[in-house]
Write a structure and sequence with these properties.
- With 254 residues, this protein is mainly β.
- The protein is 7% helix and 35% strand.
- Strand 14 and strand 15 (233-234) form a beta hairpin.
- It is elongated.
């Protein structure tokens, strides 16, 4: 069974995104990979969007970060620069369900800048080696569907023309698109490729009057493309969340 992704994006995990590797930092030390638990699921490869949990420590064992602190799983696409290089280089070849220890030298972690803030405090000091224990919980490659309001009208099927209102957000809650901007409903023929695959896969079976939340992996959304939405740019490899209200249907004549 696929895990359901909690939608909150904890602020502390931004250290994985905001602090890359400095090209002019001292490039000493090698990435050391140790499999603590061998998984039994699908093999992980670059381009997969992963659902993970993790603990980050300094080499003396002091913990500086953990996904459990917010109660949320960490979701990212492997090999596209969304996380530090040590993760991108060290997680390929794992299997779902496995736990891997990565001993990461500074130049593949947070480099000479470390992870420091405006008040001059640092979660990770400059030029610091780090250790992560990472569990791959699942590969996120299917639309997650949640019926917020079930509805009691006609059922949407492939080939139907559907009229909807929607709000599209990124995982951090930023709205990038909404039908409220135009003040009109959006309509399209379901299952014909006129919308992203996540919509074509996630809306059949919905009833008129209902509201459905679709959490869509990048592979079924915009993938590696950067999209300029009406309100905000959608970065490459983004997980998208749509709240969609089905207003009416014109049934297919076929």
């Amino acid at each position: 069974m696929k895990r359901f992704i909690r939608l909150a994006l904890p602020l502390f995990v931004s250290i994985l995104l905001l602090a890359g590797c400095d090209s002019d930092s001292t490039e000493s030390g090698e990435l050391i990979i140790t499999d603590l638990v061998s998984g039994t699921g699908q093999l992980v490869a670059p381009g997969h969007t992963l659902i993970t949990s993790y603990v980050g420590r300094f080499t003396d064992g002091t913990q500086f970060d953990a996904s459990s602190e917010s109660g949320t799983d960490w979701v990212f696409t492997l090999g596209v620069g969304q996380v530090i290089k040590g993760w991108d280089q060290g997680l390929g070849g794992m299997k779902v369900g496995g736990t891997r220890k990565l001993e990461i030298p500074s130049h593949l972690a947070f480099g000479k800048s470390g992870q420091c803030f405006s008040d001059d405090t640092c979660a990770v000091p400059p030029n610091t080696d780090v250790v992560y224990e990472i569990t791959v919980l699942d590969i996120f490659d299917e639309v997650q569907i949640e019926d917020v309001i079930e509805g009691d009208g006609a059922i949407a099927e492939t080939g139907d023309v559907v009229f909807v209102e929607y709000i599209g957000t990124l995982r951090n809650g930023d709205v990038f698109d909404s039908t409220s901007l135009a003040g009109t409903e959006f309509f399209f023929t379901l299952g014909t490729g006129s919308v992203i695959p996540g919509w074509d896969q996630g809306l059949p079976g919905m009833k008129v009057g209902g509201t459905r939340r679709l959490t869509i992996p990048p592979i079924l959304a915009y993938g590696q493309r950067q999209i300029s939405g009406p309100l905000r740019t959608v970065p490459p490899f983004s997980v998208l969340i749509f709240d969609i209200e089905l207003k009416s249907i014109i049934k297919s004549s076929s």
